[in-house]
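FYI - complex with 2-acetamido-2-deoxy-beta-D-glucopyranose, inputs then prediction.
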Amino acid sequence: MNPIANNVALALSFFICISFFPLLNAMPDITPTCEKTKHKDLCIGSFQESYLGRYLPENASPKLLASIIIKIVVNNASDVSRNLKTTVLEGPVPLTPEVRAKYGICDQEVVSAMKELDKVRTAMEMSNRRSEKLNMQAAITNTENCVKELTQVEAQLPDKKQFDEVVVLKEMLENIDDIIKTMG
Ligand SMILES: *[C@@H]1O[C@H](CO)[C@@H](O)[C@H](O)[C@H]1NC(C)=O
């Protein structure tokens, strides 16, 4: 390429970049989707906090939005599980055998919830409404079980942080359930 053509090409690609930039920045409006949920602020907040929403087209369908919200929650669950393992089960604070056992059960429940959520996503892709609902309910029950276990030993917990994280996770799952229920 001669230098002039080179400059034109450069200017052109620069122009193309600039004109696409607003598109990349525009996020879909999550409010109508989150409007239907019990924990609405959490629904909107977790979507806006996550990097996952940034790659969506502005006009993303409700189904796509729901699947992204599920993905955000799966990531969250995996962080909750990691924190249970690294900061509590393998953490520096000695635990009584009873508290250790409860945390252990709780972590297994969170891991199961993640597996159920994977099934929900597959069910959504295949438009299997029955499996969607069943697996969603199973995932919620998993987190409820975890909360119950920790509630039994709440006074003995070295730190409330993980407990609170599980409660938030449960609320996020309830939100997905609300979203799925209102999808056609
Ligand atoms: C899970 O998501 C909620 C909402 O975005 C956030 O407040 C919380 O810190 C997350 N938990 C973990 C363990 O990342």
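The chain has one domain: 28-182. The pocket of 2-acetamido-2-deoxy-beta-D-glucopyranose is lined by residues 45-46, 49, 76, 79-80, 83, 165, 168 (CB under 6 Å).
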